[in-house]
Amino acid sequence: MLIPIAPPAFDVTLDIVYATAANLAGHPLYRRPAAFLHADAAAALGRAAALARAAGLGLRLYDAFRPVEAQWMLWQACPDPDYIADPRTGSNHSRGVAVDLTLDGPDGRPLDMGTGFDDMTAHSHHGRTDLAPAVVRNRALLAGIMAASGFEPYAFEWWHYQLPGAGAYPLLTDRAAGTALMGG
Q1: What is the total count of domains within the chain?
Q2: CB 120 within 8 A of CB 78
Q3: Distance of alpha carbon 38 from alpha carbon 22, whole angstroms
Q4: 88-137 pLDDT, tens digit each
Q5: How far does CA 57 lie from the centroid of its chain?
Q6: Which member of 6, 17, 49, 159 has the lowest number of beta carbons within 10 Å of its beta carbon?
């Protein structure tokens, strides 16, 4: 049901943060650094990668499909519905139709977006104008690429994009998705 997202099939750099301890939970949520998306989101991500490449940039993917089990772990670490979807209602990551990502510059390093990934503060919100001009430009560039590819932003996180109508897709556990991100 879900498509693996990895080079060379997808022109992205994988930097799967939840496969490391360097995340807001403080421990790895996934046993391996892999990414998966529903076919609809995978097609949109392919379009976004092509648009980024045409601009001399790249996409760096921090997260994609997130099993419901991992969503519970994030909720336990940060039970703030502005930043972490309540697993009882479900995350669009757990539907396989949301991505967390940034743009890499021509040198392969992430562009300055003003905050790091998973910075759960108001500085991470879209549309801020009180940031350095280069940061505002970089965020606008990412937003434009993602919108032109079929994604919509999440207002509180500059890195989060999802397909419109995401709630129509079913929530998936690791087992149901067959991704083996959580183990076993």
Answers
A1: 1
A2: yes
A3: 26
A4: 999 999 999 999 999 999 999 999 999 999 999 999 999 999 999 999 99
A5: 17
A6: 6
Sequence-ordered list of residues with C-beta below 8 angstroms from that of 99, at least 6 positions apart, any chain: 37, 41, 45, 61, 63, 64, 151, 160, 161, 162
DSSP string, 114-146: SS-TT--SGGGSTT--SS-HHHHHHHHHHHHHH
Q: What is the pLDDT of residues 20-44, one digit of tens each?
A: 999 999 999 999 999 999 999 999 9
The yes-or-no verdict on residue 184 having pLDDT over 90 is no
Q: How confident is residue 1, by pLDDT bands cut at 50, 70 and 90?
A: confident
The CATH number of whichever domain residue 162 belongs to comes to 3.30.1380.10
Predicted TM-score (pTM) of this structure: 0.96
Concerning whether 69 is annotated as a catalytic residue, the answer is no
And the tokens for 131? 């940031």
What is d(CA 21, CA 120) in angstroms, rounded to the nearest whole number? 17
Q: Examine residue 184 and state whether it is found in any structural domain, yes or no.
A: no
Alpha carbon dihedral 41, 43, 49, 50, in 10-degree steps, equals -150
Options 15, 100, 157, 174, the catalytic residue: 157
What angle, 0 to 180 degrees and rounded to 10, lies between the N-to-C axes of helices 39-54 and 133-148? 130
- List the Cα angle 39/11/166 in 5-degree steps: 30
